[in-house]
Amino acid sequence: MGLVEKAQIMDEAAIGRALIRIAHEILERNRGVEHLLLIGIRTRGVPLARRLAEQIQRIEGKTIPVGILDITLYRDDLSTIAEQPVVHETKLPGNINGKIVVLVDDVLFTGRTTRAAMDALVDFGRARQIQLAVLIDRGHRELPIRADYVGKNVPTSRREIVSVMLTETDGEDRVVIEEPIGPA
């Protein structure tokens, strides 16, 4: 099945501005960086978490720990993805007990990825609080999950696909809406 690009909704500058705003919101809500960890959900949540940490360091002058969370084995659709799923390494920046963890992801859709990430995180300890930062919230929730920090709300149809491309993984920064070619 092919895809056709319907619209570009964010370019490199818009992504940069959204991340600066989210960094400020994280600092304001948490009154600084004490006890704060950023954990990117693999794949594109990881470079977004690193970029947020860089912005926070520019603003606050303090380094914030960044971790990587692989949720492969926590997904509720694991059997439909692959017979032999590829599991990547989770790297947390130390103990999460008593910390404020900001999970970072590229797109919030049904909420199932976030639920899997919270399930995975609980296996590593008891955070004081878990917050969620996403670049795009496209709606269509199946679970009662909402983001604390959103770069852009993008109303979409279920048929549409939101593709986030980042320099670190795709060679460019942009967000597009794509649509499958052919009958629904």
Description of the structure:
This protein is of the alpha/beta class. The chain has one domain (12-156): Rossmann fold, CATH 3.40.50.2020. Helix content is 29%, strand content 29%. It has five helices and eight strands. The strands form two sheets. Strands 3-2-4-5-6 form a five-stranded parallel sheet. The protein has a three-stranded antiparallel sheet with strand order 1-8-7. Helix 2 (45-60) links the parallel strand 2 and strand 3. The chain is globular. It starts with a strand and ends with a strand.
Terminal CA distance? 11 Å
Total number of helices: 5
What structural class should be given to the helix and strand makeup?
alpha/beta
How many DSSP E strands? 8
Beta-strand proportion? 25-35%
The strand line-up of the biggest sheet is 3-2-4-5-6
Rounded mean pLDDT score = 93
User: How many structural domains can be distinguished in the coordinates?
Assistant: 1
What's the overall geometry? Answer: globular
- CATH fold assignment: Rossmann fold
What integer value in Å does the Rg equal? 16 Å
Q: How do the helices and strands follow one another from N- to C-terminus?
A: EHEHEHEHEEEHE
State the helical fraction: 25-40%
Q: Which CATH class is shown?
A: Alpha Beta
Low-confidence stretches: none
For the largest beta-sheet, the strand count, sense and barrel status come to: 5 strands, parallel
CATH architecture: 3-Layer(aba) Sandwich
